[in-house]
Write a structure and sequence with these properties.
Elements lengths: L5 E7 L6 H9 L6 E8 L5 H11 L4 E5 L4 H10 L6 E6 L3 E2 L3 H10 L5 E11 L5 E4 H7 L12 H6 L9 E3 H7 L10 H9 L3 E13 L15 H16 L3 H20 L3 H14 L4 H9 L6 H13 L1
Parallel strand pairs: 1-2, 1-4, 2-3, 6-9
Antiparallel strand pairs: 4-8, 5-9, 6-7, 6-8
Helix pairs in contact: 8-9, 9-10, 9-11, 10-11, 10-12
Length: about 325
């Protein structure tokens, strides 16, 4: 049987310390029918020089250096337009693939019905030096944030809580074709992708750690809930999309859980504009309770909420 083509879209931005290891982890996969597309999003370090040296060594790599930074969503769409694979991996070039990752995900896809659009897996988090920090699902279980890994129709679960390590995903091409790629009006892609794709396709969990996800001080994930956080506003926009996509009472309840969570985060990070927007959305979904009204009422008070939130998260999630 012919092996399907897998397109690995490698997005680089100021990853000069990590990009070679990341790309070599794709090259060294046991599965060989891989198309590697590397897009550098106008890095201002030496990332492009490192990538060019790899292209000389491995001429099959397609390299797209762009001169103006366009962000993850637009960068991915530019690379995706050139891809030909039956399956797609969105791969940041500060992460590392385990050698059998693609082979195992393809094997899994081959045994699944075509309405399964995404196979995701467990992951290990590492620091800038590559030292182990924690395992994704072990951490979520230990902290009481998750009791089991949802799969199948995960739409409602995705609305209410975070549980997927997005760098572990392999996606059928038809999913991106149906969605029209990532929404370029958003500051980040994960939540919107999960919501829109899970409305039409099922998800499958492969219970193995197949990716090392690097935690770097200036990564997007470290910027959550800072003052003026553009990602927070994007989350609001995705919640508005979900409001239109919902089909059941269960899904509306799941969205209410998410909106209440984002209200709390907005208030305690002093993002008052987003707190107000989320509260208005909550009023469209349900009758606010006294906690909701209290939170929005104290939002503008000169209380050091950001410090309180920082201390709480350090004690709760470290």
């Amino acid at each position: 049987m012919n092996e399907p083509l897998v397109s690995v879209i490698c997005l680089s931005y100021n990853h000069e310390r990590f990009v070679e290891e990341a790309i070599r982890s794709v090259i060294n996969q046991t599965f060989k029918n891989i198309e590697i597309i590397v897009l550098d999003d106008a890095s201002n370090d030496s990332s492009q020089e490192v990538i060019r040296k790899l292209v000389v060594e491995f001429p099959a790599i397609q390299f797209l250096p762009i001169e103006k930074n366009v962000g993850n969503c637009r960068a991915f769409n530019l690379a995706f337009a050139l891809s030909k694979g039956d399956f797609i991996i969105d791969f940041a070039t500060d992460d590392i693939m385990m050698p059998e990752r693609i082979a195992k995900q393809i094997d899994q896809f081959q045994s699944l019905p075509h309405d399964v659009g995404v196979v995701f897996a467990d992951a290990n988090y590492v620091n800038e030096e590559g030292k182990f920090l924690r395992q994704h699902y072990d951490y979520l279980f230990r902290k009481g944030l998750l009791k089991e890994v949802p799969q199948g129709d995960v739409y409602a679960k995705i609305l209410s809580r975070y549980f997927i390590a997005s760098p572990t995903m392999m996606v059928r091409r038809v999913v991106f074709d149906k969605m029209g790629g990532y929404d370029e009006d958003l500051a980040y892609e994960d939540f919107d992708f999960w919501v829109r794709s899970s409305r039409s396709f099922k998800y499958f969990f492969l219970n193995e750690s197949l990716t090392k996800i690097r935690r770097v001080g200036n990564s997007m994930s470290t910027g959550w809930y800072k003052l003026g956080d553009k990602q927070l506003h994007s989350t609001y926009l995705v919640c508005k999309k979900a409001q239109k996509l919902n089909r059941s009472t269960e899904e509306i309840k799941a969205l209410i859980i998410r909106v209440r969570y984002e209200i709390r985060q907005s208030v305690f990070s002093k993002n008052t504009n987003e707190a107000t927007l989320f509260f208005e959305l909550l009023c469209e979904l349900t009758q606010p309770n006294w906690v909701d009204r209290t939170l929005i009422g104290i939002c503008h008070l000169p209380i050091p909420f950001r410090w309180i939130r920082k201390v709480y998260h350090a004690s709760r999630f470290s």
